[in-house]
Each structure stands twice: as structure tokens, then as C-alpha cells.
Design a protein that fits this description.
The chain has 24 helices and 26 strands. With 669 residues, the chain is α+β, with helices and mostly antiparallel strands. α11 (289-296) runs antiparallel to α12 (298-315) and α12 crosses α13. The protein is 42% helix and 26% strand.
Length: 669
């Protein structure tokens, strides 16, 4: 029993004996243990208890709300500090039944513990709404404080007592920033009320509160007063700040994003102009980054972007602004009195730094970057014009061979319009069927018989005549129409193969798959549709992929190749020897053919070390060999000696139209 835990002294027993004679209910509450410590007979009736022992055994804290517990701790603190007395309306719940009383609370120290003497003056006869409003005020999380018009607080509700720091000379001191104090004071003077969201100092540190204030009168003295109510909106402000950050920063690299550039860079440009400085905007784009995503996967590409972002940050001074515009494109803004020289120096450092080899997940990666620079004297008055000029200069650097720097000039606008017109023409050409497959014969090295071909795209332009791939493939890749071009060429080849087979000719034609096409999850479905529409055998088509697509060594690449082989297609590695593949991985892929790049064939038979290594590897892995770019009989003789099965090149024929290829077939042995 609680009596046994805290024994009553003779002095305490004498004091309680006097209290026991009182006719109105009196009890002592142990705030720390949340139990009644003692009660007179009238209090036992209030609490509906059969005995003092029974009442003292009740755990009052079990059903006590947090707001009531908080209020009791405030009482205890006030008893300790100020020896205060409170008279308040309280609703008790003896055995679950509500009883509303007017109670006077006084501190009572007993054996080092501050307890609370509770004296019930009478039962309240107020209407239900009054009782409910009083109860609600106790639990209300809103901070309510009544201040003297120009002085300290007169009253605080429990929520305010818990959080607001006391004492304050006036309500203005609660607000941290002078501007907020002045604004709220002005609102009160002009309208008699005011409202704002401000930073305030609380017992829990700085917080954001929505503060409402209004002029009123003190109900006790009748003097002018100010009623302040506050709601803690710190979590909302934190969420807003987080949302603003996410809206203005790139989630991958943490760098400012395009929104940040558009909203914040204009002020930086104006500031530089006001200080007599010039501005330069650098647009940095990683060369052939799309190949990384297509061959090694987007996860690997994301890691690479983070690393490149870190390299860029390490090159910049604090005042130079770096942002990620999107994809593999970054922006740098720098301002200086002689900005052109600084921009050129920085751009050169960027090109050099980004070109250094990088190791990620055990894979060495080498990338280059193209940088375009827009200067304030180029006629760009706003940030969007600067961005467009820098972008044009960057594309000019790519057109010049990549891994370089270009400053914007007005001629680039004309080239951009030409490029846009070309993209439009390509799309129109695809819609009108202007692209066709040309065929370069593949010849048996021993017999000289044409056994197949490589299909290559040509554009029969209605005005400019026959166009070769280098005039349209780069734009197709950048604009995203390369997949449609691949599909059309494949469909033409499949249809023609079915025609040849119907004529009794069994040929195999190789078709290049772009990295974009190979990385398309819908590729097997597209190929299946082409086979069904043309009635072509899958085995008659050899799909060529570049060696770089094998760099990932990942499951997706293996699954795609396995799926294509299951469908019946043959798989060839094009331009073998020019990439960075680990040769040990070749045996893990379902391959049929290695095509030896023309750069190794051109030096034969004198420079034969690398071709000999490749042919040996093919024999070990039981792969077919096809040599590209064969132009002389000496080259062909050497290939025959090494066991190479097929060749293609000008020794037989350059790529030709379907009609011309059929003529070659007619005279083939």
C-alpha cells in the first residue's frame, strides 16, 4: 500500500487530523506517483471509494491524458518556485463517472516531495457547453497567453505554460526577429488584430509558430490587454523547406537543378552587372553517355553522373555556381571582370578532369566532355538566352569531334535551325518510307560464293538524292528516332529474305542493332512481329551488336542475348577489338560470330599480331569469323590461312541497292 511506501509522520498525522474535520472534500495527491496519498471522508465520497486504502491503491496515471499530466507537472513546478495557489474547474472521473468541481490546489511538501493539497469548494452547476469548453481548454494544444497591453503575461493556458519561456517583459520579446515584431505591432495598431508565421523562442528552442494577436480587455482589471494565440507549424515549415529544396535540387547529385537556374541565376546576373562584372555560362555535356546507359545500365550511369558531379565541384571556386540541367548535362555560371579568359581556363580544366579514367564496380570507364560557353557580350540579356547560346556552343563542340570547347557565335543559330529542319525531314522520311536497306555482300573466303550480306541504311532523299548514314544517323540517335529506323530496316531485310528463300536462295543477312534498340525491353516483341509479318526465319537474320554493349557483364544483357538466341537469331559482335571487353567474358555470352574490324585488316599481312590473336580466340571459342574492309587479295590470302570463314569489303563490292545486289547474286559462283 502507498501508506507503507511513504509513512506518515506524527506531524503529518496531526495536520491530516485537522483536515479530516473539514466538511468539504479534501485530499492530498502525489504528483510524482500519480496516486492519492490521503483523503478525508468527504473526499472518499467524491471519489466513490469505500476506504482510504482502496482510494490510495488506485493508479490515477493509468487513464490520465497527457495534457492533464502536463498540467499537474506545471502545478508542481509553480508550487516549488512561487508557492502559488490555483482555483480551477476540474472534472474528475471516479470509477468512470464525471464530476465537475471547483477545486483549490495548494502545494504541500512531504518528506522532500512536493505534493498537491486539493480542496473541493463545491460541485459546478454549469450547463454542459460550459463544462465542455472548460475541459477542452485544458486539452487544447493551441498556446494562449493574455498579456498586459505593454507588459508581461497575465495568464497562460497549460499548452502555453509548457512551451513559452517566462518571464517576458512584453509579448514582442517572444518573437525572435524585430521585423516580425514590428509587422504584428503595425497590424494591431491599424486593425486591432494581426496574424503572421514567425520564428519564436520556446523551451524547446527556436520554432515556427502561426501567431494571432488581438486587442482586448483583462476580465479582472478591465485594463487593455493583448490576447496571443499560437499554433506550432514547425513540421509544416520543415516540409515546405524540404519540398522547396527538392524542387530546386537534383535528387541524384544534390546539385541545383534547372528550376534553380531559372529562378536564381537571373539575380546573380543582375548582381554581376551591378558590380561591373561580366558573366559566362558553361554548358557541359558528357560525350556518348547514352551508350553507357544502354550498355552498362542506368544504375551504373547514375553512379557515373555522381562521380562526374563531384569532379566538377572540386574544380570550382566558392562563387562559381554549378547545376545539373538534366541527363548528362551540367551548367556552370561564373562572373568576373575579364570573364572570357577565366571561362576558357576553367573549360579546359573541366575537359581534362572529366577525361581521366574512372573505376566503378571494378570497371574502367573513359568519358570525354564537350563544353559550350555563352558570354554576356553575345547578346544574351536573360538566363534563358544564355542557356540556349551555351547549348548551341556545346553541340558545336560535339560536331567538331567532341572532347573540346566552343564559344557561342551567331552562325550557330543557323546551324541549329538546319539541324532542327533535318530532324523534321528525317521524321517525314520515316513516315514516307524513304529509308532503304543497302546490302554489302558477305563472301565465303574459300569458294568466293556470296553467302549473305550486311544490311546498311541509306536515305533516298526526294531532293538531295541518296544520303549516307553519317549525314543522318547522329541526328537519329540524338532525336530518339533510331529505333524506328532500325525497325524499318529490319522489316525490309526480313521481307527480302523470305522472297529469296521462296526463290530457293538461303542467305543470311546481318543487321546492326543500335544500343538504344538493344536496350529496349520490347525488342523481342518487335522482332517477333517482324518475323510473323514477313514469314521470315529468325535464323536467316544475324543481329549485330557493338562490343561496348557487353561492357556491363550484367544479367539484363545476358538475358536479352539468350532470348534472341532462343528465338532463333544469330548474334554477332561488330567491330571486335576496338572496345574494352574482357575477353574472358566472351565465353559467357551466346554468340555466333566475331566481325574483325577493318582497322586491323588494313595493315595485313604486315601488321598481323592483333588479327592473329583474334582469329585464335575465335577458333578456341568456336566462333565464326567475318573480316570487314577486305580490299586486296593479299589480305584475303592471309585470312584464308588463319581459317577465317567470310569476308566483306571492296574486294567484292561496296554496299549496293537491292537491285544491284540481286545482279551480284546472279553471277555468284
Amino acid at each position: 500500500m502507498l501508506h507503507e511506501l511513504i509513512p506518515l509522520t506524527e506531524e503529518t498525522m496531526a495536520r491530516f487530523a485537522l483536515l479530516a474535520r473539514l466538511r468539504h472534500p479534501v485530499w492530498v495527491f502525489d504528483i510524482d506517483r500519480q496516486r492519492v496519498h490521503w483523503a478525508n471522508a468527504a473526499a472518499l465520497k467524491v471519489w466513490d471509494a469505500g476506504s482510504l486504502e482502496e482510494l490510495c491503491e488506485r493508479d490515477m496515471g493509468r487513464d490520465m491524458s497527457e495534457s492533464v499530466a502536463r498540467r499537474l507537472r506545471q502545478y508542481q513546478s509553480d508550487f516549488e518556485r512561487f508557492e502559488m495557489e490555483f482555483s480551477e474547474s476540474w472534472t474528475l472521473y471516479p470509477n468512470g463517472k464525471p464530476r465537475s468541481l471547483q477545486v483549490v490546489f495548494t502545494g504541500l511538501r512531504h518528506q522532500g516531495s512536493m505534493m498537491m493539497l486539493c480542496e473541493a469548494l463545491g460541485e459546478l452547476q454549469a450547463d454542459p457547453n460550459t463544462l465542455r469548453s472548460a475541459e477542452a481548454l485544458l486539452h487544447l494544444p493551441v498556446l494562449i497567453t493574455l498579456y498586459q497591453a505593454d507588459g508581461p503575461a497575465l495568464y497562460r493556458n497549460p499548452a502555453a505554460r509548457e512551451k513559452v519561456i517566462d518571464p517576458a517583459e512584453c509579448w514582442q520579446e517572444h518573437l525572435i526577429h524585430i521585423a516580425d515584431r514590428e509587422l504584428l505591432q503595425l497590424q494591431l495598431q491599424q486593425q486591432g488584430k494581426g496574424r503572421l508565421v514567425a520564428q519564436v523562442m520556446t523551451r524547446h528552442g527556436e520554432r515556427w509558430h502561426e501567431v494571432s494577436a488581438r486587442h482586448c480587455r483583462d476580465a479582472v482589471t478591465g485594463e487593455n490587454a493583448v490576447l496571443i494565440s499560437e499554433v506550432d507549424v514547425s513540421e509544416l515549415k520543415d516540409a515546405e523547406a524540404r519540398a522547396r529544396y527538392l524542387a530546386m535540387h537534383d535528387s541524384l547529385t544534390g546539385l541545383p537543378n534547372r528550376n534553380f537556374v531559372l529562378q536564381c541565376y537571373p539575380a546573380l546576373l543582375q548582381q554581376a552587372k551591378g558590380q561591373g562584372e561580366q558573366a559566362a555560362l558553361l554548358c557541359i555535356d558528357l560525350d556518348r553517355f547514352k551508350n553507357i546507359n544502354d550498355s552498362l545500365g542506368h544504375t551504373f550511369g547514375d553512379l557515373l553522373l555522381v562521380q562526374m558531379g563531384e569532379r566538377l565541384k572540386s574544380l570550382l571556386a566558392p562563387a562559381q555556381q554549378l547545376a545539373r540541367q538534366g541527363g548528362d548535362e551540367f551548367l556552370v555560371l561564373l562572373c568576373a571582370p575579364q570573364v572570357q579568359e577565366q571561362a576558357a581556363t576553367l573549360a579546359a580544366a573541366i575537359v581534362e578532369a572529366l577525361a581521366r579514367p574512372l573505376w566503378l564496380r571494378g570497371q574502367e570507364v573513359r568519358l570525354t566532355a564537350s563544353v559550350g560557353i555563352s558570354l554576356c557580350q553575345d547578346g544574351a540579356e536573360d538566363i534563358q538566352s544564355h542557356m540556349r547560346h551555351a547549348d548551341l556552343a556545346m553541340y558545336s563542340a560535339k560536331d567538331a569531334g567532341r572532347n573540346g570547347i566552343q564559344f557561342y557565335n551567331k552562325a550557330m543559330d543557323a546551324r541549329a535551325r538546319t539541324r532542327l529542319a533535318l530532324e523534321y525531314e528525317i521524321r517525314r522520311g520515316l513516315e514516307n518510307g524513304e529509308f532503304e536497306a543497302f546490302y554489302q555482300p558477305r563472301v565465303d573466303c574459300l569458294t568466293g560464293e556470296i553467302v549473305g550480306a550486311e544490311a546498311l541504311a541509306r536515305w533516298r532523299h526526294p531532293e538531295r538524292g541518296l544520303l549516307f548514314p553519317d549525314s543522318f544517323i547522329p541526328v537519329c540517335e540524338e532525336s530518339g528516332v533510331i529505333r524506328e529506323l532500325d525497325r524499318q530496316i529490319l522489316a525490309q531485310v526480313a521481307s527480302q529474305l523470305a522472297n529469296w528463300e521462296a526463290q530457293g536462295r538461303l542467305l543470311q543477312v546481318s543487321v546492326n542493332l543500335s544500343a538504344s534498340q538493344f536496350g529496349d525491353p520490347a525488342l523481342p516483341d518487335v522482332l517477333q512481329q517482324i518475323l510473323q509479318a514477313s514469314n521470315c526465319r529468325a535464323a536467316a537474320i544475324e543481329l549485330e551488336i557493338t562490343e561496348s554493349l557487353l561492357l556491363a557483364h550484367d544479367q539484363n544483357t545476358l538475358d536479352t542475348l539468350a532470348s534472341l538466341r532462343t528465338m532463333g537469331f544469330a548474334i554477332a559482335i561488330d567491330d571486335f577489338g576496338t572496345g574494352y571487353s574482357n575477353l574472358a567474358y566472351l565465353q559467357n555470352y551466346p554468340l555466333n560470330t566475331l566481325k574483325i574490324d577493318r582497322s586491323f585488316i588494313s595493315g595485313l599481312p604486315q601488321s598481323s599480331a592483333i588479327p592473329q590473336l583474334i582469329t585464335s580466340l575465335c577458333r578456341i571459342l568456336s566462333l565464326n569469323m567475318v573480316a570487314e574492309g577486305v580490299e586486296t587479295h593479299a589480305q584475303l590470302d592471309w585470312l584464308r590461312q588463319q581459317g577465317c570463314q567470310q569476308y566483306q569489303g571492296y574486294l567484292c563490292s561496296r554496299p549496293v541497292s537491292l537491285a544491284h545486289f540481286n545482279e551480284l547474286l546472279h553471277y555468284s559462283p
